[in-house]
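Posting this for the archive.
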Amino acid sequence: MSAVNDFGFHGLTPDVQLDAIESLGIYPQSGLLTLNSYENRVYQFRCENNHRYVVKFYRPDRWSNQQIQEEHEFAADLQDDELSVVAPLMIHGASLHHFNGYRFALFPSMGGRPFEVDNLDHLEIVGHSLGRLHAISSTRSFSHRRVLEPNAWGQAALQSLRGCQLIPSALKNDYLSTATLLLNDICEQMAGKNYQAIRLHGDLHPGNILWTDNGATLVDLDDACMGPAVQDIWMMLSGERSQQLLQLDVIVEAYNEFSHFNPDELQLIEPLRGLRMLHHNAWLAKRWSDPAFPNHFPWFGEVDFWYQSLQDLNGQRRAMQDAPLRFGPSWS
């Protein structure tokens, strides 16, 4: 019988975790240290030959085997082309393993420090990495993983938010109406835009970039998808508009040494930001029955959060009416 229950990980006890790892002929000599992951369950350990590993247990019913395998093959493609990315290990001829109803993979444990988002030298190196990534990823398409399509993603988010019992009743109609209007704005602005859908990291925020003496290492391809190149760029931008323009110039100049960035995609930054806002709140609502989420995101259940979130949605609608970011004179 499967160990999976409603929130997916109830049966993933420490004994099951260890038995799963040992089924591969790898025997942990340390305890399993929980790493910062919520969608999956991820642990670091040291084995008998003093090698350090990370084991990821995938959330049941989220991805198909084909989708996970395609993620693994994508990481292997990037690594084969000498891009610094953490890819799953091949063990007994496979990267995806099964035990007691769970699917899991082993990765090498990588040391490093956080990526400095305000460091222009770091941004230049990240721009090189992204240009190389997209040069490789654009050579073929995913067959099983999702396409970043705003209406489908947004409607799924709205469905989760409609069923969310945490939104204050006095606010819910206004909140859902505003979320619907934001999605309409997103779909309208993204409709007919000139971009090529390529294989993406998909969730390339600074936390998914590990900094080492050799530069940037990309981690966690769990959300890899098909979509516009700018999806892997816009989350690197922060601060005031003038700061974002400088950051964008640094990233894209480095990016263009390996791939050509289509400047028309700059129009997609704010719609993609709005889509992420909807998706993030819907993700928390959908996962709230998993005890890890109330423990790590307690503010999501507070009334003040939802009032602030409504203001943020309205603010994003206004931001989408502003002129999109543009390159400086050197890019015209």
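The mean pLDDT is 93. The chain has two domains: 14-110, 120-331.
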